Amino acid sequence: MSTTTPFPVLALIGAVSGAVTAWLLLRRDRPAGVVHPATGPEAGYPEIERKIFADERDVRLAGVHEFAELADREPGLRQDFVDQFFMQLGYGWPQSAAWQAVLWPVLLRRLRRGAPEFWPGTNLHSKRPMVLHQLDLRGCEVGEVFFRGVRFVGDARFDGAVADFEHTTFTGMAAFPRMTTYGELWFDAARFSARTDFADAAFDDDVSFECAGFAGPTTFRNARFAADVLFGGARFSGHADFTGAMAADFFLTGARARTDAYVRRTWPPGWELGRPRLRKPGHWADLTRA
User: Fold this and answer.
1) CB neighbour class for 249 (10 Å; exposed up to 12, middle 13-18, buried from 19)
2) Strand arrangement of the beta sheet that strand 145-147 belongs to
């Protein structure tokens, strides 16, 4: 099969992606009565736009479903859908918790490997401060995650997203700077393959990173944990910075860090690295109480 793509096809793909981005993201404030003339593959987009910005919740939800199904068929539209999805999460206040509960399943089924609708490499970017209720990303695989200034209300679960060490949960940057959580938070067995940023985050309840893997630079600088924080069995391959982090107690028993590469690390008060030992791959040292 030829690997070349005819120019008209490339032009059509560009037109389709550009049209959805313009209509659904940049022109979201256009009055619903405006109709965009279109033919061919683009003909359904104005109707989707009308629905996802409707005042009626059922109509809006139907539009979200239709946009997701369109992105199933046209992968180039998937990131546009996710960006629009995060805008939709903020709709419905003060009933935002109930609205998010019916909205999240539309995206989550597309973030789980093995699902018929799985979208690999999807980036989750929250571009403005918002409140997320009962977030459950268990079993999901995503690319970049950036939740700046997000408040998590209720349990937020990220644990067990990928089972083995060779695969990743977050294939790109995972950034949660200055986020605030209200409820327990689990990252058990999560895998962070690039930069991980929890700087200045505030956790109101128990937090667990047990058996999590941190492959890239990791910072918890000035993070505040109201209760205990668990890192038992965690692995740190790159830089680690806990400068200024505060918790009721840090539990790092069984955690270890790779020592055969030049890295800078500042551990929580009362913890230090023991003697390095050969553990494939490379040399590792256990975290111990000072």
Assistant:
1) exposed
2) 124-126, 145-147, 174-175, 196-197, 218-219, 240-241, 265-266
Measure the CA–CA gap between 54 and 32, rounded to whole angstroms.
8
Tell me how far apart the alpha carbons of residues 113 and 138 are, in angstroms, rounded to a whole number.
Answer: 11
Tens digits of residue pLDDT in 72-105: 999 999 999 999 999 999 888 789 999 999 999 9
Residue ranges covered by each domain of the chain:
6-120, 123-290
| Torsion over CA: 254, 207, 106, 101 (sign) | positive
Q: How far, in Å, are 48, 200, 209, 210, 288 from residue 255 at the CA level? A: 49, 23, 10, 8, 8
User: Could you report the per-residue pLDDT of 195-226, keeping only the tens digit for each?
Assistant: 999 999 999 888 899 999 999 999 999 999 99
